[in-house]
Amino acid sequence: MTEFTTWDILRNLLLATRWTLVLSLVSFVGGGLLGVLLLFLRIGRARIGRIFVKYYVELFQGTPLLMQLFLAFFGLGLFGIDVPPWLAAGTALILWTAAFLAEIWRGCVEAVVKGQWEASASLGMGYLQQMRWVILPQAFKIAIPPTVGFSVQVIKGTALTSIIGFVELSKAGTVVTNATFEPFTVYGFVALIYFAICWPLSKSSQMLERKLNVAHRNH
Amino acid sequence: MSLIEITEVRKSFGSNEVLKGINLNVEAGEVVAVIGRSGSGKSTLLRCINGLEQINAGSISVAGQPLLPDDKHLKALRLKVGMIFQQFNLFPHLTAGGNVILSQTVVKKTPKPEAEAMARRMLERVGLAEKFDAYPDELSGGQQQRVAIARALAMQPMALLCDEITSALDPELVGEVLAVVRELASEGMTLMMVTHEMKFARDVCKRVVFMHEGRVHEVGPPQEVFTKPKTEELQRFIGMVGEAG
Amino acid sequence: MSLIEITEVRKSFGSNEVLKGINLNVEAGEVVAVIGRSGSGKSTLLRCINGLEQINAGSISVAGQPLLPDDKHLKALRLKVGMIFQQFNLFPHLTAGGNVILSQTVVKKTPKPEAEAMARRMLERVGLAEKFDAYPDELSGGQQQRVAIARALAMQPMALLCDEITSALDPELVGEVLAVVRELASEGMTLMMVTHEMKFARDVCKRVVFMHEGRVHEVGPPQEVFTKPKTEELQRFIGMVGEAG
Amino acid sequence: MHYQFDFGWVADYYPVFLKGIWITLELTFVATVLGVLVGIACAWARTQGPAWLRPLPIAYIELIRNTPFIIQLFFIFFGLPGLGFSLSGMEAALLAMVVNLGAYSAEIVRAGIQATPRGQFEAGSSLGMNRLQVFRHVVLVPALQRIWPALSSQAIIVMLGSAVVSQIAAEDLTFAANYIQSRTFRAFEAYFISTAIYLLLAIALRYVLAGIGSLIFPRRAVR
Amino acid sequence: QADALADIAARGTIRIGVPQDYPPFGSVGTDMNLKGLDIDMATMIGEKMGAKVEFVPVTLPNRIPYLQTNKVDLIISSLGKNAEREKAVDFTQAYAPFFNGVFAPKDVKIEKPEDLSGKTIAVTRGAIEDFALSKIAPPDADIKRFEDNNGTMSAFLAGQTEVIVTGNVHAAAILEKNPPKRPELKFLMNKSPCYIGLNKNEAGLKDKVNAIISEAKKDGTLAGFIDKWLHQELPADL
Ligand SMILES: Nc1ncnc2c1ncn2[C@@H]1O[C@H](COP(=O)(O)OP(=O)(O)OP(=O)(O)O)[C@@H](O)[C@H]1O
Ligand SMILES: Nc1ncnc2c1ncn2[C@@H]1O[C@H](COP(=O)(O)OP(=O)(O)OP(=O)(O)O)[C@@H](O)[C@H]1O
Ligand SMILES: [Mg+2]
Ligand SMILES: [Mg+2]
User: Regarding the domain with residue range A6-212, which homologous superfamily does it belong to in the CATH classification?
Assistant: First the structure.
């Protein structure tokens, strides 16, 4: 039987990290695009749209991501859609990410003070014009720190895809553990790799937040 | 026909009736001060005229057009009547110039160069030509309020509604804003302003409207209202304000 | 020996020297008003006496004990000197009674029934016996400040420091708080109060301390300080306050 | 679609679900109580504690917040025995949940403490209280009231996150779904039902926590 | 009605569910590539069918849902046969011998099912040995059911449980790697040869795979695999 050296362990984990990164990126970008769509429905004028998104968010924030992955994985297959793990993982994570981002962004739109709506209305702007030129540019700035912060949640969320068999960092950790019987070392490394990816994002989110608060105080 | 005609206007928030049948006409070129205790409905009246609040009964018409709450009528109304707020409400992500340009290009579809020329003229008119590229947070409160006036003027409204536009300013900055308003009044702009600056109201306004508990309680030229108040409420109000000022 | 002895006290915030060598003695039973322009260091002086700020040079002693910045000495000091703040600073999660009881049981380990009896007595002394179970947000500003006074009194201090305790109150509520203070003064409590109520200072205080730019600029009995100011700065200050009041 | 939905097995297996729900709730409850205590201790150490102590909670909070829960769980269950520290599945699940919630609630509690007006600290000190007494009697209760909604959300997040403890043989609601799935081969139905249960639990928990909040904090919101 | 055989021909690939956490049937090397008896079987079947093999790593509990939801065409994952499973899926003929056993370190005294009383036992949920164990274990045995073989084996090796129930050949493969705790055979529970699983009503595919297995039995290919991975001879009764 072949023996794993510490370097073998680390090398295999780092190779699997690629998939964690790819999946995170896909989920974040896909979830972001869908999130924008949901955001517009949520703050839009159509009542059905608002209600739909409200329940959508409730559903995805009120159930475990793990269950969403299971349902995507086994559920979509029932409808005759052939779902490999990466597709189920991507779909579930995109839907999940979109729910959270839409909700975060809605908070940012609502954080724009009422006076801005009134001032732009009294200048004769319509709803879409107010949104496009006055509200969204301000909300966008407020939204950057929490959005960067949420990217950490997405990266951590990808770890659950290991359970439906997508081989990313966490799954590689389990597989390597089974071949080496060194769970302490292996999971220690896995945790450190996640930390190395997530911590810079958390920090920059906090720094952006602080910068924004300082900027606000000057107003 | 008056420029602004307000007839039997009523407005409630929930069960709280804030305007209890307001009748008031404002002629073109007239400068009207609205005074009254806190909570008497002054702001609400102005906001109704500008369509920021929807009225429950009565009618408001501006330049003969009745105010209807659909988007098209609202937009038409707001092109005729500008509004300036206590909290300035400048767009913080745009420069002073950008603030004045935006609504022209977006609402009136004025071509950019023309809008910019207009913005420069209006900023000059309020004495801020050199602040064209400054962001709101780089301006003093008084300067911000003057930009807000320039922004409203650039839409070439027939009347301006001003809601306590100097109340959020440090005392030393009040003067510069009132100077601009005084100038506008002398040029014949129609102005309807809620104010606590009694001296200013006396000097500049043709008519003073005293509101009390959701009604227009007394109306008259300033010398009459301030020196010979007819009702006890107005007497008490003037006493209070006099003490404070 | 004076109750409070302040000798050559200096205090800086960063490079900004706020107290530039203060000398002042307050006798037991004396009522001292501290006046001066905004930023002259009045609050800072009071906060130093209570140990909320640490002094950089000089010494402060209360009842013969020097003020040292360790926990044990600080606690001993604060049992001797109570402080009342402009913003009341009542504990919002406790009733009026709870506010007065808390520090007795926690700091002095007074048994609950005794602490409660004391709380009732003190609330009665400030005229709020019936508000024992009311929460701060159910009280007016004046009532809240009176609870704060009761809370300080319950610790049985030798002196009370009051920092503009009526400045955050609506004018009609100032009187009720000052009445309580006047009562305390007449009962012989040592009081050192920063105040802008010149009339009150004149009536109640034995001595007025005028601070200017971090120094005690003039000290004297009120009739002297207010009617025959020796320095130009005090003259100007009294002129200003007179205008405003 | 050649798959026929079949929920007929539910009658035979509902006790498994009930047990799973019970364990999920039990884990959530204990982890929330202990986790918030850990959070309060860390928040205190970080904002009020002695200077030498401060790096410790910071390192703990950053480490936990920047690694996935499932890895924390595996590390505790599979990794720690290497150091001679062996826990059962339930114990490991509970410990992982407490450690996780502790880090998040530490940040929430800290925000609540930092929103306390300075005057409150000063009023407490000027009455002769020491730092710990001020924290315990003056700062903590209004801070908890302020952050109650945020803590409630975090408790719900922890409950939903606990779905992965089934991976180390803790017999929670997800374990029930997996167990039934492997006995009946009705994967979709089992997961569908358990997802619906989680949703109901989350909604119910939100109401219950809001109710508890208004019971223990009868006062209006503290600013 | 789907026809898996036709689909495979059309696609040119056959998707086969294989284990990656169950040596000697399937595990990873230091290069993370799969190896083992089931992997060799899958490769051979792919070759014989003229289709490219797509390996889909499955765990013991999710093998059957993978098949049911049509994520794989075949499962080759040391799959044992029992009545419950026969209701859900179809089986080919057996391709490898397999015995379920109860294993524990040397110092733990266990000789018969009753001795399991009060012991903590690791088993992989949904594996054939889970069904077997559930039938024979005394009620006060503390059975910990893990999600996959990784979990089961890690838990045992980390000392989380005293006993592990698994296949004899799997335990042997673990022993070869000198683990920190040695799973030694206490007693065998039942014989449960490995079958290849496929969806019901796929007669075409079933016949085809059966034919390939028969041929491999005849020409010695299978005996080669069994010798290479299980270090034993191909039993005559398979
Ligand atoms: N959006 C709203 N919802 C509910 N009540 C409102 C709203 N806006 C105003 N009110 C109520 O209407 C009444 C009149 O308010 P309004 O702002 O018009 O008074 P005002 O005369 O402008 O007072 P001030 O001098 O304080 O600005 C007040 O009682 C206020 O509480
Ligand atoms: N914590 C602090 N950090 C830095 N500077 C401070 C601090 N507290 C007070 N200062 C500065 O010290 C100076 C004196 O402040 P202090 O509050 O004692 O003045 P004051 O006489 O009480 O004025 P006021 O009448 O406005 O209350 C001011 O310039 C102030 O900015
Ligand atoms: Mg108003
Ligand atoms: Mg002060």
Answer: MetI-like (1.10.3720.10)
Distance C92 CA to ligand 1 centre (A): 28
Residue A219: band (very low, low, confident or very high) from pLDDT cuts 50, 70, 90: very low
Look at residue C138 and give its three-state secondary structure: helix
Calculate how close chain E gets to D36, using CA atoms only, in Å: 28
Identify the DSSP state of E26: B
Contacts of D170 (CB under 8 A, 6+ apart): D23, D27, D89, D90, D92, D93
Instruction: Answer whether C137 touches D (CB < 8 Å).
Output: yes
Domain count, chain C: 1
What is the identity of the amino acid at D95? L
Residue D170 lies in a domain: yes
In this structure, are residues A171 and A164 in contact, taking their beta carbons and an 8 Å threshold?
no
- pLDDT at D182 (0 to 100): 78
Q: Mind listing the pLDDT tens digit for each residue in A56-65? A: 999 999 999 9
Scored b (16 or more CB within 10 A) or e, A158-176 reads bbbbbbbbbbbbbbbbbbb
Write the DSSP symbol of residue C56.
S
Q: What is the pLDDT of residue B243?
A: 38
Rounded-to-integer distance, Cα D4 and Cα E200, Å: 14
Output the six-digit token pair for E140.
């006060």
A-chain residues near E59 (CB < 8 A): 165
Residue D222, in any domain of the structure: no
Q: Residue C244: which pLDDT band, with cuts at 50, 70 and 90?
A: very low
Q: Which residues of D touch C (CB under 8 A)?
A: 117, 119-120, 122-130, 133, 137-138, 141-142, 145, 217, 219-220, 222
pLDDT tens readout for residues A22-36: 999 999 999 999 999
User: How many CB atoms are located within 10 Å of the residue A6 CB?
Assistant: 12
Q: Domain residues for D71?
A: 10-216
- Residue D139 maps to a domain: yes
Q: What is the ipTM of this complex?
A: 0.82
Q: Which amino acid is at A191?
A: A
How many C-alpha atoms does E176 have within 13 Å on its Cβ side?
Answer: 15
Q: Residue E60 pLDDT > 90, yes or no?
A: no
The CATH number linked to D75 is 1.10.3720.10
- Judged by its nearest atom, the ligand closest to the C-alpha of residue C54 is 2
CATH number at residue B81: 3.40.50.300
E70·A164 Cβ contact <8 A: no
Token digits for E237?
A: 């009764």
Give the pLDDT confidence score for residue D219 in this predicted structure. 64
Ligand 4 ion: nearby residues, β-carbon < 5 Å: C 43
CA of A51, closest CA in chain E: separation in Å? 33
Question: Which of A20, A27, A69, A74 to substitute to test the interface with D, most D CBs within 10 Å?
Answer: A74
- What is the C-alpha separation between E162 and E177, in angstroms, rounded? 19
CB atoms within 10 A of CB A157: 27
Burial letters for A190-214: b for 16+ Cβ neighbours within 10 Å, e otherwise? bbebbbebbbebbeebeebbeeeee
Listed residue (C202, C186, C177, C158) closest to C35, CA to CA: C202
pTM of the predicted model over 0.90: no
Q: Is the dihedral angle over the CA atoms A210, A212, A214, A217 positive or is it negative?
A: negative
For D28-57, write each residue's pLDDT tens digit.
999 999 999 999 999 999 988 889 999 999
Q: Which residues contact A212 (CB under 8 A, 6 or more apart)?
A: A141, A142, A144, A145
In a domain, residue D2? The reply is no
The residues pairing with B159 across neighbouring beta strands, listed in sequence order, are: B81, B190
Domain count, chain D: 1
Given an 8 Å threshold on Cβ–Cβ distance, is C93 in contact with D120?
Answer: no
- Rounded Cα distance, D45 and D71, in Å: 26
B23: containing domain: 4-241
Instruction: Write out pLDDT tens, residues B34-64.
Output: 999 888 999 999 999 999 999 999 999 999 8
